[in-house]
Design brief:
The complex is a heterodimer of chains A (99) and B (315). Chain A is globular and about 30 Å long. Chain A is built from 1 helix and 9 strands. Chain A has 99 residues and is mainly beta. Chain B has 315 residues and is mostly beta strands. An 8-stranded antiparallel β-sheet of chain B has the order 3-6-10-9-12-13-17-16. A 5-stranded mixed β-sheet of chain B has the order 11-14-15-19-18, with helices on one face. In chain B, strands 2-1-7-8 form a 4-stranded antiparallel β-sheet. The chains are: A mainly beta (99), B mainly beta (315). Chains A and B meet through strand 4 of A and helix 2 of B.
Chain lengths: 99, 315
């Protein structure tokens, strides 16, 4: 089942399951990309698209289940603000919960 | 609000599915005339109150490269019908930031091209176009200012490559092969134009089955005997149009017999006395083949047609 919100708030694989990605980050304007196991970008969304929320220094976003890594760019500096594997065991600051 | 600087810095095409990994056969427009990227509404729905409602957004990039080669021609044929990856980079929007549009991975655009060799030089006008559903397009637009550009082997800056820039250099214009149509020094027009004929898909992507070919030679070699010689030529003879490149290399366009028809016009007025010949016909895209290397216009080591080559139509 496609995640209904993804159709308007992001672009990527619009099929299959979605999971919740959580990233510890301070408030700001960001662009979020996720990549599959081959490093191919499969999802994009941003603050300007209202594609995620940031509350209490934690960004939360629904991303395709196939996402293996992510990259978060600060839209004001265009520098990478956070990146890494989407794996709760390897990246303690990034919490992942399957829906 | 920051000032948005005008201009397109780099436009590069490569094989479909390779931009995201290792781009294969990248070609930059390089030395070019104007290029323009336009994004606007497509098939808006107008209601009874004449309000135009959103539907799709159309992306159209037009650019005219002055670096056409036989290799470029081959790749353009390969890349028709949505089979190309394209990266467009704008001029910097600050000291380092620029917008990057990657038309790949489901965002491939359709291609049309208009290829011209004439007395004004050699050029290839390429049009890329496709419309996307509105929300997909908005997301795609949003990503442009944070997308990291791919770098291409052998391409720096806008892709200017003086080795690929060639001016007009008439060599042969024959019909049938090995029989000259006349002296190019007495010609006022000597041109070859090849362009795609398209139909559009539902998302405005060009679907190309055929190339329309038009060759013309108009000149002052217009004695009665010249006109009779022209009129006595076969209706559908083979044709060779050839331009010189550097050294002994050349670009040869070889049209088989039955491909191009002949139309003649003889004009005498108070200013001119000219004989005009127009050769034209439509060729399916898969009736085009290529020869490279020694004897075919290119360097022995050139397997792609960059230094020169032969394009055969209807064989």
């Amino acid at each position: 089942m496609p995640h209904p919100k993804s159709l308007s708030k992001g672009e990527g694989l619009l099929k299959g399951d979605f999971m919740k990605l959580k990233i510890k980050i301070s408030k700001g304007n960001y662009a979020l990309r996720t990549f599959d196991k081959n490093g191919t970008q499969i999802y994009y969304t941003s603050s300007r698209l209202n594609g995620f929320t940031i509350d209490n220094d934690e960004l939360q976003c629904e991303v395709p289940d196939e996402s293996k890594t992510y990259e978060l760019k600060d839209l004001s500096t265009l520098k990478v603000a956070a990146s890494g594997e989407i794996n709760v065991h390897d990246k303690p600051k990034d919490l992942q919960t399957k829906r | 609000m920051p000032y948005a600087a005008a201009g397109l810095k780099q436009i590069v095409m490569c094989n479909k599915g390779t931009l995201a990994t290792t781009p294969v056969d990248p070609i930059a427009l390089g030395i070019r005339k104007d290029a323009v990227l336009t994004i606007n509404h497509f098939k808006q729905v107008e209601d009874y109150r004449k309000r135009k409602l959103r539907n799709m957004l159309n992306f159209k990039l037009e650019g005219e490269s002055m670096q056409p080669t036989v290799f470029t021609f081959k790749k353009l044929i390969d890349w028709l019908n949505g089979n190309v990856d394209l990266q467009v980079v704008t001029q910097n929007q600050s000291s380092s930031a620029k917008d990057v549009w990657k038309f790949n991975s489901g965002k491939e655009l359709g291609i049309d091209f208009d290829w011209t060799y004439n007395q004004d030089g050699r050029s290839c006008k390429i049009t890329f176009e496709r419309a996307f559903p509105y929300s997909d397009a908005v997301t795609f637009i949003d990503a442009a200012d944070s997308t990291t550009a791919v770098t291409f082997a052998g391409i720096t800056d806008d892709g200017t490559d003086l080795a690929l820039y060639r001016g007009a250099s008439p060599d042969k214009f024959e019909k049938p092969a090995a029989t000259s149509l006349g002296s190019s020094s007495l010609a006022t027009v000597r041109s070859m134009n090849i362009k795609t004929e398209n139909k559009k898909s539902i998302d405005n992507l060009s679907l190309v089955d055929n190339l329309m070919i038009t060759l013309e030679m108009t000149g002052r070699e217009a004695a009665i005997s010249d006109f009779v010689t022209r009129l006595n030529k076969g209706m559908l003879d083979g044709v060779v149009f050839q331009e010189k490149n550097s050294g002994a290399y050349y670009d040869k366009f070889d049209f088989n017999s039955l491909v191009l028809s002949q139309t003649d016009e003889f004009v005498i007025n108070d200013e001119e006395r000219t004989l005009k010949i127009v050769l034209e016909g439509r060729v399916p895209i898969y009736a085009v083949s290529f020869l490279y290397g020694t004897g075919n216009g290119g360097d022995a080591a050139d397997t792609k047609g960059t230094t020169g080559g032969t394009v055969k139509f209807g064989y």
